[in-house]
Design a protein that fits this description.
The chain is α+β, with helices and mostly antiparallel strands. The protein is 23% helix and 28% strand. The protein has a 15-stranded mixed beta sheet that branches. A 6-stranded parallel beta sheet has the order 27-26-22-21-20-29. A 6-stranded antiparallel beta sheet has the order 30-31-32-37-34-35. Strand 9 and strand 10 form a beta hairpin. Helix 4 runs parallel beside helix 5, helix 7 packs parallel to helix 8 and helix 10 packs parallel to helix 11.
Length: 763
């Protein structure tokens, strides 16, 4: 027995130790990792490279520069209005950090509460020089790195993660450090895909981006013509003037970054409701910044051969996952989450009766009359409606709300209601009276630095953001959702979540500095935890969808809508903005995109006309959801409001959508395992095809359906690029060979889409 034990111990000694097998501390370099991902760290001068399983370098820090500390002039970054008219101040070197001061100013009210107005920095930038010491730490290494700041070292930890590497950086004296950054070489043809719901195309190369959740950024030329808006954003003490944008100024492409077609007021072309600080590179890796603070991305915007990530914090924490696009997408979203599959009925045709904003405002009588007319039209037309939503449940009161829901259920139609992340006595009137006072009295909101309720302005009314780190607030929210389910609701919209101010204080000790971007994920995670109990209470599945989002939100959600799109054709926030938004967030795990058919914000563009509305209907037919919700000021226009021809088009597209839903659900289930979304950008569907990657207005459902909607006013045809293979156009049966573009006819009511030859994806 003793000999057997000794033999077993001897065998164990011959086996490699799993924690240290991937670590080598040599005189000139340090190697750490596992077969899928290896970090090779040059000791002096400091430089880190990441290799994939084949030993190929997929990511390398920019060549070091040791010219000493670099003092930067005062920098506004982001600049007011996102104009980006000042020179970039990025330092492209391994592991840089800035010591100095940063002042950030947010909007405290209006449409834009919580958005950044500007950030002003001044200080001295230091960079890493050489490794002073290295030791094993668990499965990774801990490095002590000298810098150009004689009083500070960097502590760098490199640790293997599933499929990748995690790099954490912190100065030994964090006090006074306002940013930490890392910079990398950008390949000549390298493309950067993802970053959440961005509108400015599918490749963010050449762009400057900010990781900051923001709301109500408006675009389109009709909006920009209202130049009176722009001087109105200047606040006392900002030191910024808009003399060049006086009331008589003509907005030109030269004045605005990205041109007027892509510009958004007030935060510039990269502003987004749904921000994911992660991307997939065509060079063979995925990248994720793990810090919640304001994050700046310089993706080859001022130097074509460099990119940089910088966080407004005394820490940097990021993950690199090598792999071709599908593998990198899978590995990133395995960590950050993927949308859960909703009930099948939620993907059916949905009509949303919004509260009309402005004018005399909504009353119980006007709200009920609109609902009654909708139900009459649905009955008379036998409209193919799966779900009906009405925001005015608080106006109607419990008895009328229950009565409306009973009528809907009698017709086999599910009912959706409305919730939001703050309370206010504003003109939306989407909550019961007394909520504001209730939340204030019981201490359920976020606080200011003095412990008082942190009020902000929402549409001219006092508002309070709910503090979901407070268990009593969670209990209050649970009662709110139980009330909706008790009325008979089958689900709800979970609106807003962008309003957190950096001065806010939360019950768990967090401040708005780290909570602004975290808040949407926290907000949605609370509801996801409550969901099983709500379903047990209701005896049925509950569906809900969200607006705001950040890295990690997708793990809790089923669906998002893209924010308040403008009712126009624009690439900034109208119809042409939808495909980039949907596809950029889909590769980050947010599969369930649900646009407002017709757009929502009609303040400047006016309500949708028949052509815009019909093309929006077509656009939505081969996406995960098919939901009418349009016209904020003019009021919702239902499918029958645009005339018989438009109604017939809506019915036809609703039937097409119904045929596609089984395929979308199969792809969604598969995507939960693989990370590949149901709606795929062509760079992911046809990897290596550079021409395919340049198509921002096309996508595929899986591998066998290619969708190319018409998104320009007056167009009756469009050019479609077909990837490799044989494709058959729906409705004609004509076959085409791929890796080619062709012009296709597309009169109003006809959606261009193609099916791979030999397949029947909708069968």
């Amino acid at each position: 027995m003793h000999r057997a034990v000794l033999a077993f111990v001897a065998l164990l000694l011959l086996l490699p130790a799993p924690a240290t097998a991937g670590i080598r501390l040599a005189r000139d370099r340090i190697v750490v990792g596992r077969p899928a991902a290896t970090a090779v760290i040059q000791r002096s001068p400091f430089r880190l490279r990441v290799r994939d399983a084949a030993g190929r370098t997929v990511l390398a820090e920019a060549p070091p520069r040791h010219a000493g500390a670099r003092r930067l002039p005062p920098t506004r970054d982001p600049e007011p209005l996102g104009l980006d008219r000042e020179p970039d101040r990025a330092t492209y070197a391994p592991l840089s950090f800035e010591v100095g001061r940063e002042r950030r100013v947010q909007w405290t009210g209006s449409f834009f509460a919580g958005n950044l107005l500007f950030a002003r920095r001044s200080g001295v930038v230091h960079t890493a020089r050489r490794v002073l010491g290295a030791r094993r730490e668990g499965a990774g290494v801990r490095l002590r790195v000298a810098t150009t700041d004689a009083s500070r070292r960097l502590i760098v930890r490199v640790t293997p993660t599933p499929g990748g590497l995690r790099i954490r950086v912190r100065p030994t004296r964090p006090r006074g450090v306002i940013t930490v950054a890392d910079a990398f070489v950008a390949g000549r043809h390298e493309a950067f895909h993802g970053f959440g719901g961005r509108h400015q195309g599918l490749d963010q190369r050449g762009h400057k981006l900010y990781g900051w959740v923001e709301q109500e950024n408006l675009g389109g030329r009709a909006t920009l013509r209202q130049t009176a808006l722009l001087p109105g954003v200047v606040q006392a003490g900002t030191g910024f003037t808009l003399d060049q944008l006086g009331p008589q100024t003509t907005i030109t492409d030269a004045l605005l970054p990205g041109g007027a077609a892509h510009y958004l007021v007030p935060n510039g072309p990269s502003a987004a409701y749904y921000v994911q600080n992660q991307f997939v590179s065509s060079a063979g890796y995925g990248f994720r910044s793990r810090r919640p603070e304001l994050t700046r991305w310089r993706m080859g915007n001022d130097r074509a051969d460099r990119w940089q990530v910088a966080v407004s914090a005394p820490d940097l924490d990021y993950t690199v996952v090598p792999g071709h696009p599908a593998t990198a997408t899978r590995r990133l979203t395995a960590a950050t989450g993927r949308h859960r599959l909703p009930p099948a009925w939620a993907q059916g045709p949905t009509l949303w009766r919004a509260i009309q904003v402005g004018g005399a405002g909504e009353t119980r009588a006007t709200a009920l009359a609109k609902i009654e007319e909708d139900l009459r039209q649905i009955d008379a037309r036998r409209a193919p409606v799966s779900a009906y939503a009405f925001e005015a449940w608080a106006l109607l009161g419990p008895d009328l709300t229950r009565a409306v829901i009973r009528r809907l259920h009698a017709h086999g139609i599910r009912a959706l209601l409305y919730t939001r992340s703050y309370v206010a006595d504003d003109e939306l009137r989407t909550q019961p009276p007394g909520d504001l006072e209730d939340v204030r009295e019981h201490g359920l909101s976020v606080k200011d630095a003095r412990g008082r309720p942190a009020f902000f302005q929402a549409d001219g009314a006092d508002a309070l953001t709910l503090d979901f780190t407070n268990p009593r607030t969670v209990a209050w929210w649970k009662r709110r959702l139980q009330r909706l389910v008790g009325y008979g609701a089958d689900g709800f919209m979970q609106d807003f979540g962008e309003q957190v101010q950096e001065g806010d204080r939360f019950a768990d000790g967090s401040t708005g500095v780290t909570m602004h971007n975290r808040y949407p994920a926290l907000y949605h995670a609370v509801t996801a935890r409550l969901e099983p109990g709500l379903e047990r209470r209701a005896g049925r599945s509950i569906y809900w969808f969200t607006r705001s989002g950040s890295t990690g939100s997708a793990a809790s959600e089923m669906s998002n809508f893209p924010g308040d799109e403008t009712s126009d054709w624009s690439a900034s926030s109208g119809l042409r903005s939808l495909a980039p938004d949907m596809l950029n967030r889909a590769v980050g795990g947010a599969f369930g995109y649900s646009t407002d058919i017709g757009g929502y914000l009609d303040l400047f563009a006016g309500p949708p006309d028949e052509e815009l509305w019909s093309r929006w209907v077509e656009w939505s037919a081969l996406t995960p959801f098919f939901r009418v919700h349009n016209a904020q000021r003019a009021g919702t226009r239902m499918p029958w409001a645009f005339g018989p021809a438009a109604y017939a088009r809506w019915v036809a597209m609703a039937r097409l959508h119904a045929r596609a839903v089984p395929l979308i659900r199969r792809l969604w289930r598969r995507g939960r395992r693989t990370g590949l979304p149901p709606t795929r950008p062509l760079w992911l569907a046809a990897p290596g095809d550079r021409r395919a990657a340049r198509q921002p207005q096309e996508w595929t459902l899986g591998r066998d359906v290619l969708v190319a909607p018409v998104v320009r006013r007056g167009a009756t045809s469009r050019t479609v690029y077909l990837p490799r293979g044989c494709w058959r156009r729906s409705g004609t049966g004509r076959r085409r060979r791929g890796r080619a573009g062709l012009r296709v006819r597309a009169p109003l009511g006809r959606l261009p889409y193609f099916v791979r030859c030999g397949t029947r994806p909708f069968a």
